Amino acid sequence: QAFKCLSKALVQIRVNNSECETGFYKATAGPMSRHIRIHAGFSGHLYDVSCNQSSLVMNIKRELHAKTAIPVQDQRLLHGNTELRNFAEVASLPIDAELCLLRRPAGQAQWLRNVMAGDENTLGTAPECIKEDSCVVQAALSRHPLALRYAHESLRADEALVIAAVQRDGLALQYAASELQSNPRVVRAAVSNNVDALDFAASGLCSDRGFVLELLKQSCDDSKLGKAKPPKALNQRTTDKIFASASLKLRADKTLVMAALNNDGCALRHADSSLRNDRDVVLAAVRRDGLALQFASTELQEDRQVVSRAVKQCGKALAFAAEELRGDWQVALQAAAASSSVLTLVSEDLRCNRTFMMTLLALHNHHRLKSGKGHGRGQMPENAAGRGNFAEDASPLKYASPELKADRDFVLAAVSLGHALQYAAPHLQEDREVVLTAVTRSGGALRDVVAELRGDPEIVMA
């Protein structure tokens, strides 16, 4: 009886590519157009609507609403026994497909409006028959994926429905049926949206080498994620989470570890101890992120080549090198050349070594010139702005030994590079030649000039 009542509102839609007959409504057809002929059974009127192949079922429903006054949310378009989703493309329909339009029962239509207008808890207030209604649940999940918690258990075990939910919010995986939490397709879709969805995946998946390897590769491949390129930090967090969730056996798999290090050097922290003592593995890690040196074995923290590679990538990695290498001239220069703050990690002997510190001043000046910070006051080469961090980096003089801060020739070399006068020994801050050199290089040095010299016309005008 219910079907007979609904059939009164039946509209038969015949999809074809033929020309419209005289008297039919006709819209202008665009490229790759299709003509959808509509027969309104309850009125006898015929309509012919043109749309593009890329048009959605939702577009058809809007046209039907304009012609039949049936609200879009009250419409059900069926192809055979399958209800078409609003965002299905017209191109997916066979050329000679016949579609049926049924008007939804009043109760279902009302709950569709409720879940579309409400929050994620609205579905929870619905009667059980509505929680079993795939149309209403799909509508609720399109707005609030975490509403999956309120869906009937049969729908929480529906792979297509759950995938649609986790693609919008990966954490919806926690409400999926247990068998879907073990399904690689579902979990992969959830992790692509939010890597923390791994917390709700079945433990067995984290022991599946192929699955974990695919996730690691996916975290490095933005095209598979179907997103714009994520920030580097987000990519690294994703890789770290995936690798940390892998079983202990997989974290001892060199191929899998190398795949993780390809995106996040510090993922080395989760590798088996045998691989943290593998020179090839550690070199791959510090090439990606010098700070990964902290997770290498003690033996490799004493390896000159490994440490050299790490500090070249990130000077601060020197903090994790063996004490002997922190006093190694070449390694220390590599670490401190780009940022003098790394000198705090260099051995005291080197910071007292005048030749080492003079060499570092020359290297520091070289980096400043390359970054556009070493030109005269107010001058900067075109496109140099924003490169490097030398404007904020303190002079090596700041970290020099007290003896070098009192060494006039060394201080003159330092202030000639700028922003160093404040670190000189007090008696050199009163030395007119030192002050003039500093102010000539950078007008900002005037703030560090002693009161007696601030009235010197040559210094003020420098």
Beginning-to-end CA distance, first to last residue: 99 Å
Overall pLDDT: 82
Q: What Rg do the Cα atoms give?
A: 35 Å
- Could you estimate the helical fraction of the residues in percent? 40-55%
Number of strands: 6
Report strand order across the widest sheet: 3-2-1-6-4-5
Helix and strand composition category: alpha+beta
Largest sheet: 6 strands, antiparallel
Helical segment tally?
Answer: 24
Strand content: 5-15%
Shape: elongated
Low-confidence stretches: 1-31, 222-229, 374-392
- Spell out the helices and strands N to C: HEEEHEEEHHHHHHHHHHHHHHHHHHHHHH
Annotation keywords:
462 residues, alpha+beta, 24 helices, 6 strands, 42% helix
Q: Can you walk me through this structure?
A:
- With 462 residues, the protein is of the alpha+beta class.
- Helix content is 42%, strand content 7%.
- It contains 24 helices and 6 strands.
- A 6-stranded antiparallel β-sheet has the order 3-2-1-6-4-5, covered by helices on one side.
- A hairpin with a 5-residue loop joins strand 2 (33-40) and strand 3.
- Helix 21 packs parallel to helix 22.
- The longest helix is centred in the C-terminal third of the chain and has 18 residues, at 354-371.
- 38% of the residues are buried.
- Mean pLDDT is 82; it is low at 1-31, 222-229 and 374-392.
Describe the protein's topology.
Layout: H1 2-7, E1 11-16, E2 33-40, E3 46-52, H2 57-68, E4 75-79, E5 82-83, E6 98-103, H3 106-117, H4 128-131, H5 134-143, H6 153-156, H7 159-168, H8 184-193, H9 209-220, H10 222-225, H11 232-245, H12 254-261, H13 279-288, H14 298-301, H15 304-313, H16 323-326, H17 329-336, H18 348-351, H19 354-371, H20 402-405, H21 408-415, H22 432-441, H23 451-454, H24 457-461
Antiparallel strand pairs: 1-2, 1-6, 2-3, 4-5, 4-6
